[in-house]
Prior knowledge:
The chain is an alpha/beta fold. It folds into two domains: 9-319 and 394-489, Rossmann fold; 510-633, ANL, C-terminal domain (GMP Synthetase, Chain A, domain 3), CATH 3.30.300. The strands form eight sheets. It has an eight-stranded mixed sheet with strand order 12-11-8-6-7-14-15-23, with helices on both faces. 5'-O-[(S)-ethoxy(hydroxy)phosphoryl]adenosine binds next to helix 11, strand 24 and strand 25. The site of 5'-O-[(S)-ethoxy(hydroxy)phosphoryl]adenosine (WTA) has 22 residues, from helix 11, strand 24 and strand 25. It comes from Flagellimonas allohymeniacidonis. One of its GO terms (biological process) is acetyl-CoA biosynthetic process from acetate. Belongs to the ATP-dependent AMP-binding enzyme family.
Amino acid sequence: MSNYHIKHFEEYFQVYRKSVRDPEGFWEEIAEEHFLWRKKWDKVLSWDFSKPEVKWFEGAKLNITENCIDRHLRTRGDKTAILFEPNDPKEGAQHITYRQLHERVCKFANVLKEKGIGKGDRVCIYLPMIPELAVSVLACARIGAVHSVVFAGFSSTALSTRINDCEAKMVLTSDGSYRGAKTIDLKGIVDEALEECPGVESVLVVKRINSEVNMKSGRDFWLQPLLDEAYKDCSPEIMDSEDPLFILYTSGSTGMPKGMLHTTGGYMVYTAYTFKNVFQYKEEDIYWCTADIGWITGHSYIVYGPLANGATTVMFEGVPSYPDFGRFWDIVQKHKIKQFYTAPTAIRALAKQGTELIEKYDLSSLKVLGSVGEPINEEAWHWYNDNIGKKKSPIVDTWWQTETGGVMITPIPFSTPTKPTYATLPFIGIQPALMDEAGNEIRGNQVEGRLCIKFPWPSIARGIWGNQQRFKDTYFSAFENMYFTGDGALRDEVGYYRITGRVDDVIIVSGHNLGTAPIEDAINEHPAVAESAIVGFPHDIKGNALYGYVTLKDAGEGRDQDNLRKEINQVITEHIGPIAKLDKIQFTNGLPKTRSGKIMRRILRKIASKDTSNLGDTSTLLNPEVVEEIIKEAL
Ligand code: WTA
């Protein structure tokens, strides 16, 4: 039995038990047999959640890029490492082999060094989904610089805040980016941001859209001429297992974004191991994750996890709607994608388009479908399963977080029987607990509580950059000796987990706890509904009442709104009970979303409470204009 590759359900249980009984022994074996270390560790694990402090493979020496690139050169030198699919399909895909990737990363790393970047320096990467993004991430790791990727859709204010927080010395960007039929002036955004960032010494600019940009002399440099001059080999900086690998910002419920800090050895081991098993990756497979590398999903499951396994990983520059809504399926057909990993929000958007465009394409290569980022509602799950997977590709509903580094609760495809809306069982080595508000663990099945993790896993974040106190307060203070996820979950009669949503989104109505996700699930069952979001608002008698924002398919053409309101409450009553009925239903043309597709409930909550004076910064939203519309209609 190989513990590295789990092939059936019984094996999952065996390996799981082993990983929990003897975590140190288990992870030591995985680390030893499947990775390249320059020096072995002195100690597998030391931890104390009360401090908090976690160290994996202490004393070990390695470079993650040697594991992701160099060690594959002998056997996979000519295999495609990165398959780049550009925004415009006419431009044609680009295959970058492991050998070519090695050379590109080495050259880029040498350019960074020449510009004064060394071990421990922070480099901010603000690039679109082009090969240079993955290459620059790896180039930083090659020389021990700490990358901080900022999604290239964030505004200049969001960018400068992040650059200053981690005191980045350098910014990597491009002249601009393509997004469907539009172009975006990235360099202009960087220029604006840098007016607030005195610490940035240099900016390297990739030419992508051939636009006119302003180059500040002494600060800004075109990348290509520097690469042309650079030497094609760069020996990897030998890092300690606990040396920082990257910072990635994630928004908290309040205040500044949190710069989650991940380190090297444990992150590598866990992302590689989860990738192999969650996607059942086999040597010839072409794997595609539609996320952006600006998010944790892209870090762990476009770059590090796949490359550590010698996989072929697709990078898609464009959007699902360009040139038309068949683009995803066109890419699946063209590259014979085996594993397809996307977000429920994308699934719902595509489902709204009907199935005509899907029927034009051959999707028979698909083997595993993934979902991540938010609870997948029942309707979307079935749509995905029926129309994309044709009921033969298991859906892996993977629950995890920026903070966890890798997938935490998930089915293992072809092993774990799936169940719509359930992330099912903890991954190997993960020990979840459900807690009640008094701080006690809720044991047994058919229970619901706050989701915590009892024991460290190798890729847990080690801190918040520059603010360990906030790290402790946010994740390790709510429950003693536990990592608190901020999510609620229920455990069904067989022990399967279902994530019910952020606990900060729980609404207490007449003393009953109601999760927003299950109510939204119910509403979305209504055939006229495209999407919905529920928030609480103050109510004299019930404490809180429910306010529903609902977008309709085809903008609700030909429907009587009052009838629809009644029908929606009827569906809720059927699925959950009359207690979950909505007091107010507002039909909207869209819901305010973050760039990663999450609904901004904070804003909706304020509007529902008629408190629109201070909505905070809405400029980083995907669709800030929707907010104005909703306010106007609400009042
Ligand atoms: C939510 C994304 C339900 C959850 C990898 C979590 C999910 C937050 C799922 C983290 C899922 C993510 N089912 N909820 N499969 N995946 N979430 O940091 O609330 O962008 O806490 O990481 O997304 O979002 P983040």
